[in-house]
Amino acid sequence: MKLRVTKIKSTIGYNKRQDLVMESLGLRKMNQVKIHDDNPCIRGMINKVSHLVKVEEINE
Asked: Counting CB atoms within 10 angstroms of each CB, which of 14, 29, 33, 39 has the fewest?
């Protein structure tokens, strides 16, 4: 299973660590979409910035 992660909110005004998590997910621009494998590491990063991203599960 894979996850489609979309950046829906800016990191301006939030903690610098959250900005670094967004960069490590590969999300720099607004409405940018990245597809990641569903594993505990990615899930943990998504939980840290859940208020900034939209996540959809993709069955492949």
From this structure: 29
